[in-house]
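Ticket #4471: structure output looks truncated?

Reporter: J.K.
Steps to reproduce: submitted the chain below (90 residues) through the standard prediction queue, then opened the result file.
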Amino acid sequence: MQEAGPINVLRTLLILVIIYYVLKLLAKYVAPLLLKRYLQKMQDRSQQFQGGQQAEPTVKEGETVIDKKPQKTNQGNKNVGEYVDYEEID
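Returned output as attached by the reporter:
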């Protein structure tokens, strides 16, 4: 068993400092590359997904297309309850 002498403490601190700077360098140079690669892959997937669902427009050049607003079918129930007026009692 080794004692916690000043040399071992300094060696441990040196190892921790080296690990800190290695992680700092990795975060500065490697992490952005990995993140860029991940974002590019997600963007490609998104474009593939959207590309499969979009269709070419069937309208010829010069034609006018009018999109009508759909009728509202969601109307509230007017028989929900009755209004009760109240008075404050002193």
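Triage note (M.O.): checked the attachment and the full token line is present. Helices lie at 6-53.
Status: closed, working as intended.
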